[in-house]
Task: structure prediction
Amino acid sequence: MKSFFIGLIVSLVGMQLVAQEREYVIVVHGGAGAMAGLENDQEKAAQYYAALDSALTIGDAILSKGGEGPQAVMAVINYFESNPLFNAGVGATCTIDGTFELDAAIMEGKDLSAGAVAGVKFIKHPIDAAYAVKTQTEHVMLAGEGADLFAKAKGLDTVEDNQYFATPKTMKWVEQLKKESKKNGTVGCVVLDKQGNLTAGTSTGGRFKKQWGRVGDAPIIGAGTYADNEGCAVSCTGHGEYYIRHVVAYNLSTRVKMLHQPIEKAADEIIFGELNSEAGNGGLIAVDKKGNIAMPFNSGGMHRGYLYKEKGKSTVTKAVGIGKTMKVLQK
Ligand code: GLY
Result:
């Protein structure tokens, strides 16, 4: 009788695990900051919801067909880098001099292979250059002129004029350069693909009014970007200097891997404990090998979205958010 009940409990727990098993997952962010009020501006909010939805749909089209994580992460980040709403590629924030210096990184959890570029001025899609560093060099990061020349030599899309990345919005910021302002923002994507592998990618124009030559957390492996199949895939957004000091992305992956902390608890401890809205304003997105996700932020808001497909189901679940609440688009 006793063994019958133990067997029943084991099979019920097993059933629950199977029911929750996720075939693939994609999580995106489009930056964190003081954007809580944005939810109430219906027209503006609709633009962000639509853009986040498009990003998830782009990733879904690749992952649903069995495409690998890096392919999905690059396609999603290419989309964000082309969309002036976000602080990456066109629409990036500028330096104190009104110029644009872009950072990006990508990392695969199956072999810890990684590539990054920092402070690039002429590469249309810094995430493509980061991937080229990962796959076509023996290095992890290229910076500045060397990275720009590398991208050109590899035939990636480059621009002649650094002001290509400017938009009317960023030009307004240039005019306001002397005023105090706190602007965060970055784009990122983390993925669990059908093969069970994790990938993380991040791209950014960095921090508004940054000193030229400044490098943020996004391209620093372990700070703003990290992936380890045994831990999790992480992409951060926020005040980069704090994310570097707290090695946030590696910190989270290692808590999951070594301490076996649930990903949400571990992410909350870092974002609300080690960091806070004053020292380390921002957030992160993360996914582990079981498809569990975390998306905490200690700022007013964070553009974010997730999409996942459970094993045995034909539909996907999809939701996007800006402020505290998520808007479910598909269930
Ligand atoms: N998190 C982006 C940056 O600080 O550059």
Observations:
- The longest helix spans residues 42-63.
- The mean pLDDT is 91.
